Amino acid sequence: MGIFRGIRVLDFGRYVAGPWCAALLGDLGAEVIRVEKRGGSEDRFVGPVADGGEGALFLQINRNKKSMTLDPALPAGREVVRRLIATADVVIANLPPQRLRALGLDWETVSQLRPSLVLTTISAFGGGGPYEERLGFDGIGQAMSGAMYLSGHPGEPMKAYVPWVDFGTAGLAAFATVAALYERRTTGLGQHVEASLLQTALSVANAPLIEQQVRKLDRVATANRSQTSGPADTFRTRDGWVLVQVVGQPLFARFAALIEAPELLGDPRFADDNARGAHGAELSARMAGWCAARTTAEVLAALERAQIPAAPVHSPAQALEDPHIHASREHPRALRPHHRGRPRARAAAGRAHRGDPARARLRRGRDRCAARRRSRVVRESQQRREQARAGLAEPGPERLGLGAAADLAAMREVGLEHGVEAGVHRRAVDDGGDLEVEAEAAVVEVGGADDRDIVVDHEGLGVDEARLVLVDARAGGEHVGEVAARREVDQAAVAARGGDHAED
């Protein structure tokens, strides 16, 4: 998925929550640059599986990223950080507020460097309380939310092996970051997105917390047995374990038929889910006896015929061998999105750098007259393409005026010269809505009469605006800058003037 192509993300995260948030944005097409200390951060080497010592978790959550090392404590390192921020759309860091300020990654600093930037920070406890400067990992959220207390056995709290708080926080942070980028299209300004491990755990554990506040039930752990339905528990079979979840009256009726115990349906102790949860030990005992006489395969087959949800309890090795897990990894729907109907979604890349307020003002002025131009622009672009295909016209250059003089200065700062390649994101107008497409082009002139023009050579298409993604062909296609532009004159007018572009 490339809907975030053109979005640059700087990942200053460590371990799970920050890096996984960045990886999710990378999965949507963003360019993600991981920044870590020289020699590599400690999270690289946890649970090593690669020849270089990198761990499985590190490889999972840092896929599809570029990387660089620096020491932000040194003046030269701080300068590199400032230059990176000036080119970024999103900065992600899972550090406490004091550390953010020390590294110059706090909101006050980065918003001055780049007002359109979205800063996403993740901490253990969140701000505004006495613990905001404390460090913490996934287990902090599990412990303080009540989740550990209600897991395991009475008197023996149990933490989940997998870091669900970390991954949950990363997902919520990525979701909020996407919302901030979407809002930036309207306001032209970035935002500070804040997430914390504790708040994520509290959100997931909200139902038992609300119940405790209202009803004061003082629940205690019951291992794997549910306290709000039944039988819902893990059960030993002749050769393994299964998880069974009977929730709701229809499933309970099918369960009673399965174990040939119709009398359960008339027992007031099992009248509804809450009653069955309160008397779950009795129901688990009945189900345990039924499962103990059968193999895992026999239990699962019988439960499938009865349409009762169940699954084998896999070891990691068994999970890797499960046929459905193998099949789902190869299924096309696991690899790419499916679209229905007309493609109405706008590619985020075409709007990736509208954070500058000057560009936002230019866009608003242009949009007021866009409706009057749309049908003419589409007709002209279609005619030019048809003529070019028929050999009746040669696609010539188009002159695009930059939205602000500062854009040209930015281009020169990264060393752009004549002949630097560019990808032009062009916007055509379809009668069903905006549709953004891409084409390759070459910058053949930088600067013009008003010192704010660039001339690009690409297939002729009348456009109202374009965003040039600039790469240096001499450096192996390295991304060196981006610039927003708008259509100044049409192709025919440029060709009529003559001498406005150089040959490739």
Describe this protein's structure:
- With 504 residues, the protein is α/β, with parallel strands linked by helices.
- It folds into three domains: 8-206, Rossmann fold (3-Layer(aba) Sandwich), CATH 3.40.50; 232-329, formyl-coa transferase, domain 3 (2-Layer Sandwich), CATH 3.30.1540.10; 356-497, no CATH class.
- Helix content is 38%, strand content 19%.
- The chain is built from 18 helices and 15 strands.
- It has helices spanning 17-27, 56-61, 75-85, 97-103, 107-113, 138-144, 164-187, 197-204, 206-215, 249-258, 273-278, 280-292, 296-305, 316-321, 323-330, 357-389, 405-413, 491-497, and strands at residues 8-11, 31-36, 66-69, 90-93, 118-123, 192-196, 232-236, 241-245, 310-312, 397-402, 421-430, 433-446, 453-457, 465-472, 478-487.
- Strands 3-2-1-4-5-6 form a six-stranded parallel sheet, with helices on both faces.
- Helix 6 crosses helix 8.
- The longest helix is centred in the last third of the chain and has 33 residues, at 357-389.
- The two termini are 32 Å apart.
